[in-house]
Amino acid sequence: MPMPTLVELVNGWGTVPRAKAADRDRPPVAEFAGGEFTDAALERVADRLYPVFAADGAAERARLVNDLLESCGVQPALGVAGDRIRAEWLVPRKRDALLAAAAVALHNQLVEHEPERLGTCASTSCGDAFADASPGAHRRFCSVTCQNRERVAAFRRRKQAGTA
User: Fold this and answer.
1) Which of 6, 67, 77, 151 shows the greatest Cβ crowding within 10 Å of its Cβ?
2) How confident is the model at residue 31 (pLDDT cuts 50, 70, 90)?
């Protein structure tokens, strides 16, 4: 599962992000494994993934992803396509396929990038998760919109206090 799709799943169906952004439309179900999931199932998966983004530190993120992989029963395997060998992941229960795909994506993200590249928006009015792909890895907000909203609010607070 590509990280942007995983982040969209978490933000579109997760309880915390949805509560803070009541006006947001949910993403189309078809984007997630052919649309075979109910709203409740997508919400459950998103809520299982959100703590990985909200966790403090590498050890906690690793523990949470390991727990997800174990709960899905994900097993590494090798497949063959023509003359090429490729990595595959086996999941014993079809109902766990979406969570397993997301857990494997988070596993790969944490192995290939710093754990701090996963996070939740620093805006007080947003709970969205993000995967930082910026060169400097200093992202604190889910979007430029949230960043600008917080800067404007800080400016207004300073102006009211007479320090602007």
Assistant:
1) 6
2) low
> What domains appear along the chain, each with residue ranges and CATH number?
3-161 (1.10.3300.10)
Q: Give, in order, the Cα–Cα distances in Å from 88 to each of 20, 56, 85.
A: 37, 30, 9
- Dihedral of CA atoms 21, 22, 25, 31 in degrees, nearest 10, equals 60
Q: Given this model, what pLDDT does residue 22 score? A: 66
DSSP 90-132: E-S-GGGHHHHHHHHHHHHHHHHS-GGGEEE---TT---EEE-
- For 74, residues 6+ apart whose C-beta sits below 8 A from its C-beta are 89, 90, 91, 100, 103, 104
